Amino acid sequence: MKYLSSILLLAIPALAAPSPTITERQDAGCGIASGFSYQTDAKLPDPFTSTNGTKITTKAQWPCRAEEISQLFQKYELGTLPPKPSSVTATYSAGSIKVTVSDGGKSITFSAKITTPSSGKAPYPAIIGIGGVSIPSQAGVASITFDNDGMAAQASKSSHGTGLFFNLYGSSATAGATTAWAWGVSRLIDALEMTPTANIDTTKLGVSGCSRNGKGAFIAGALEPRIALTIPQESGSGGAACWRISDAQKAAGKNIQTAGEIVGENAWFSPNFNAYSTKTSDLPVDHHMLAGLIVPRGLFVIENDIDWLGPVSTTGCQQVGQMIYKAMGVPENFGFSLVGGHSHCAFPSAQASDLSAAVSKFLLGGTGSATEVSKSSVTVDPTTYIDWTAPVLT
Ligand SMILES: *[C@@H]1O[C@H](CO)[C@@H](O)[C@H](O)[C@H]1NC(C)=O
């Protein structure tokens, strides 16, 4: 498979938002080492061993490793994320931003609805909702509705290749729907940056979405470094859950969504992923490493105890993701909250104060006092799922 890594590497540093401790991604020389092959392992891959065999010991090495991880995700699971195209233009009128993107002689246009808050101060921080925001609205924070279905359809397995993204890049583009949505969110952010009349502070952006759209929110946060706070809600398998743990739970008799089920149900992932859906132990990545693409930015993962979502899998997977935040010296930027006993995507009030603290810290000027959150109604020992230990990076 031909890889767009060199273009990607040139494009991403230019997009990177300032971050407290490290610069996002890295330039020349970072990427999957040539000759890399992965030894099948039922335990979660070690985020701290590079594809060239080097152990990560310093924080300064992480952006380079993160670039590898991003490329591994794209190669095995997500499909290729195209770089920023040659032309993005935007106009704003009456609560709607209209975005036109041109690449390779083709052009697409989409619109997103912006709802500004009744309190706070313009330009407003905003949460981009994949298919709409389903968490409670936050004082002083705008919400922006991103039409993910229009960008890449999620109607069935055979809807791969349908939607605006594929009108631009062709129906045989490898991107799964979630990757195409992440690309669309990036273009929306390009548009917001060039349109001050939209009154959005693009240094204070969150992304959220629930269920299938929560998978999309997690992946958008992982692929787009300008997102300050990623809030996947009840994303389950394909989002906060790890493929391997979900498979183990299924083998133990749980009614849980797995990679095998997902590739048969819908077009969320790349056709590249199909071959691995029944042998997830062959994947050099798993979803704890999505957290490794978001660190040191804010991450607040909301889950539920519905069997299909895999409460043991989401809890165990993100406890391992939390190890990356700890290793990087920013445990307070990580949150995981699983509260059960409510219907799917109904946000329970028990999670409200932790969510508000994260919003306050990452979207409302850093004045909040969010601390590391790791709460779950199921008890999991994350060391069951790994055969490595996290270093303290210097
Ligand atoms: C191996 O990869 C790591 C990052 O993943 C990088 O920091 C290091 O420079 C690489 N080593 C060599 C010899 O290329």
Automatic annotation (TrEMBL):
Residues 1-16 form the signal peptide. It holds the Pfam family GCE_fung. One of its GO terms (biological process) is lignin catabolic process. Residues 99-329 form the 4-O-methyl-glucuronoyl methylesterase-like domain. Its EC number is 3.1.1.117. SUPFAM superfamilies: alpha/beta-Hydrolases (SSF53474). Gene3D superfamilies: alpha/beta hydrolase (3.40.50.1820). It catalyses: a 4-O-methyl-alpha-D-glucuronosyl ester derivative + H2O = 4-O-methyl-alpha-D-glucuronate derivative + an alcohol + H(+). GO terms for molecular function: carboxylic ester hydrolase activity. Keywords: Hydrolase, Lignin degradation, Serine esterase, Signal. Belongs to the carbohydrate esterase 15 (CE15) family. This is (4-O-methyl)-D-glucuronate--lignin esterase. It comes from Mollisia scopiformis. The lineage of its organism: Eukaryota, Fungi, Dikarya, Ascomycota, Pezizomycotina.
